[in-house]
Prior knowledge:
It is a single chain. This protein has helices at residues 6-20, 29-40, 43-55, 62-87, 91-98, 104-133, 177-186, 211-228, 232-242, 245-258, 263-271, 281-295, 301-306, 315-348, 352-355, 360-371, 377-410, 412-416, 418-435, 441-452, 454-485, 491-514, 528-542, 544-554, 562-569; strands at residues 153-154, 175-176, 520-521, 524-525. It is an all-alpha fold. The chain has one domain: Amino acid/polyamine transporter I (Up-down Bundle). The strands form two sheets. Strands 1-2 form a two-stranded parallel ribbon. It has a two-stranded antiparallel sheet with strand order 3-4. Strand 3 and strand 4 (524-525) form a beta hairpin. Helix 5 (91-98) packs antiparallel against helix 6 (104-133) and helix 21 runs antiparallel to helix 22. The chain starts with 5 loop residues before the first helix and ends in a 10-residue tail after the last helix.
Amino acid sequence: DSAIPTEGKELLDRKKIYQQDGEITWSTKCDFLLSVIGFAVDLANVWRFPYLCFKNGGGAFLIPYTLMVLLAGIPLFYMELSLGQYYKKGAITTWGYICPLFKGIGYCVVLIAFYTDFFYNVIISWALHFFFASFAKELPWTSCSYDYNSLACYTPSWNDQGSECIERLNSSQGISASEEYFYKYFLRLHYSGASNSSVARSLTNLGSINWQMAICLLIVYIICYFSLWKGIKMSGKVVWFTAIFPYVVLFILLIRGITLPGAERGIKYYIQPNLEKLREPSVWQDAATQVFFSLGPGFGVLMAYASYNPFYNNVYFDALLTSTVNCATSFLSGFVIFSVLGYMSCRSGIPINEVAQEGPGLVFVVYPEALATMPGASAWSIIFFLMLVTLGLDSSFGGSEAIITALSDEFAIIRRNREWFVAILFSFYMVIGILMCTEGGMLVMEWLIVYGASWGLIIAVLIEAIVISFFYGIKRFAMDIKEMLGFEPGWYWRICWTVAGPLFLFGTIVSSFMGYAPLKYQDYVYPYAANFLGLMFTFSAVSAIPIVAVYKFYNAKGNFKAVNFRFYIDPEPDSLRHR
Length: 579
């Protein structure tokens, strides 16, 4: 005990009191690491990063991506983990400790996680449906013989002549069987009944509920509930499967993919650098967006998970390990995806740039179509879609736990009734999710994806960096880290927190605003009112920051003298450890 600083002993004494009041910690460090990795490594690592590399100059895209990771992504990732571990609380209470005037940051990140969960679990339900469908004797996305298929449906022609690639086949102008299955049968965006009539949906005409999707969504929420209702003691065990299994499947698919004919063609398209692309601002914007949405600062998850760590845990090592694993997984996923796309191009004669699709289409249309051509197609589909389900569940656990922990730490009634609160939260999610289980549900989902967390997340992280650097004080923050780890962060970290990170974030926000265009999904143009409400929805989370600040001043005792202002800027006295 003599090696522990005096302040540390005082904190350990306080921690014993906290534990007597019911505070819990991770059963093992691996529970924490797997939970963080599982949260950070999500569906976007598999479908978004590989496509962004392909779209933005192949290997050249790694230049802005790596810069963003090193100068902003990992430093801010490290910052949030450190704050959570130091203050031992969720986002709302922690930001109230750090700077009472900016306690609204905590409410902001909770709202961002809340909005994201509206649609994220629906995507998991898609993967769950495809997982169940993979047990069919014939994979349903391989045939044009179903009632929902149109006259334009076709099954791709494949070259079965050994390992030789063919240069070009006359591609049909129709729609592939896998595309019709996903968009017409499952999403039903332009389909109603069995008469092959195309019914265009809109936000005011969502159509009927797809009960297959709704049931899958209900199953997802049941899994989430029983994984989270008892806290990290339960979820920390579930992630041993949901976080590790995807890596087993990724390596299996990688080995299978690189042995397929034409794999080298796809890998070349994936990593071959086109340095001319670096002149386009959109490339840098895509890199910044991918980094922050993938690593996950700004959702409150990292703070929530780190708050259950022992005070002297080496959070520096944890931050480097988990963020590196996340970025490496993104890069690895590119080889998994594009080796198979090269195989498809080789066997069909269709150029890769016509085969590849962005977003859900890549993993729900293109990749299943390729797996269906392999021996044991059903088995490949089963493990692939189970991998997607587990990737999604980990991230869903994180987003929900951020909300639960933040509100439980702030409000005793929620802490005492966690099981009921989790049930109410997921029931509300289910009601909102039903809107996205309709024939026009994809229109609602696209609106939520674009306006739910995009700008709000980056603005929130920017304000976090500014508050830590210039209100809380980078020196004070460095002393906090020294108190936990025994050493202060070097100049690299301080420069990233105070200069590089905020500059990259500010540049991303400016370029996003300059490139803003009214929302459109396929051939549906969203009405003006939908875009206006979307912008209001975006800033509703960010508005929590000034609203809470005004509330603090309004309820202040006395007049607005400098001493009062100073009181709301400085950390709460109860939270100071190193003075």
